[in-house]
Amino acid sequence: MSRAASAGGRQGQVPLARRTIVALMQAADDARYAMTRALQPFDLTLPQYNVLTILLHHDELPTFQIAARMVEATPGITRLVSTLEAKRYIRRRESKNDRRHQLCSLTPEGMRVVSAAVPPFSAAQQRLIRDLKKSEAVQMTALLERVKAPARAKRLAASISRTAS
Prior knowledge:
By secondary structure, this protein is mainly alpha-helical. The protein has a single domain (31-164), classed as Arc Repressor Mutant, subunit A (Orthogonal Bundle). It has six helices and three strands. A three-stranded antiparallel β-sheet has the order 1-3-2. Strand 2 and strand 3 (102-106) form a beta hairpin. Helix 1 crosses helix 5 (108-129) and helix 2 crosses helix 5. The longest helix is centred in the N-terminal third of the chain and has 37 residues, at 3-39. The protein starts with a helix and ends with a helix.
């Protein structure tokens, strides 16, 4: 293959990569907007809702484990937990086993607000994919998992290492 043909092939891939990433980012932005609007009546941000839903499935978790389970990586987990504590949605206590760790749990008020927010939030998610066939949604999920996996695994390992020490 000539050098010119090889260079032309590489150039042809760049616009495809750009279009793919732009479409991904636009879809993510649209999804974030729709889900944020669903949470407005509850005075919750997406990260706050994420923390509450994580705790909904656990009696108690250390903050570093909450951070590791977050949908979007957040460097400010302590500030996020403090905000939710100020709203009286969660409580924190020092771990008896390791005083460096703060254990978080939902309060009754936090349980109430997250339980009320789940149905409209889930409805917003359903609206976002309503035009997809089930097989397309499954395929899209599989493709997106392949795109995010290497970078997310590396970030998660760094986050756990940094927070646990």
